[in-house]
Specification:
Length: about 180
């Protein structure tokens, strides 16, 4: 495959890629690296994540290695998301991988989606500030302005964390 296939992926193809945890973790790992990765390094990392052991057991490493080599990497290569050089056993993201990026947030495999996080923080801040302004004993111990300022600060810090994480996850790198 070339560095850019200009192949437009359908939503079904993207969801098919991301609903498999191993493929999603593969893309997440490749996004965190700005270089070509060996199949051995990738399989070691995924096996470690899947087992929670470092180093992972040999049988798990071999299982992950084989499934990546035989199934997952060829599929991602065929879709133009990665380039997998089977003879050299190396893999790297292609420019067209950015098509999947937006879905990585919408279809998370781990953690809380940012939309849910911001909704919960907003709801909690509304309740706490309201209870403080109504003079509820526990919440009235601090002025409403301090509660509100604290939540605004939390939003600002959260926004910076989100911005930083998105900058790190940018897939549209030129190769």
């Amino acid at each position: 495959m070339s560095a850019s296939t200009n192949q437009r992926l359908t939503e079904h193809e993207i969801h098919d890629v991301l609903r498999n945890r191993r493929r999603a973790r593969t893309l997440k790992y490749l996004r965190s690296r700005d270089e070509t990765v060996t199949l051995r390094e990738l399989s070691e990392e995924l096996a470690s994540i899947e087992t929670g052991e470092s180093p992972p057991p040999r049988n798990k490493r071999e299982s992950v290695y084989n499934s990546l080599h035989q199934t997952h990497l060829p599929k991602l290569d065929d879709l133009g998301i990665i380039q997998y050089e089977q003879n050299r056993k190396v893999v790297h993201l292609l420019n067209d991988a950015h098509q999947v990026e937006v879905y990585m947030e919408v279809v998370p495999n781990e953690g809380v989606p940012y939309a849910t996080y911001y909704f919960v923080v907003g709801l909690v801040s509304l309740v706490v500030v309201s209870l403080s302004s109504l003079g509820m004993p526990l919440f009235a111990a601090l002025p409403v302005s301090l509660w509100a300022g604290g939540f605004v600060g939390l939003y600002l810090v959260s926004g910076l964390v989100y911005f930083h994480s998105q900058q790190k996850l940018r897939l549209g790198r030129s190769r």
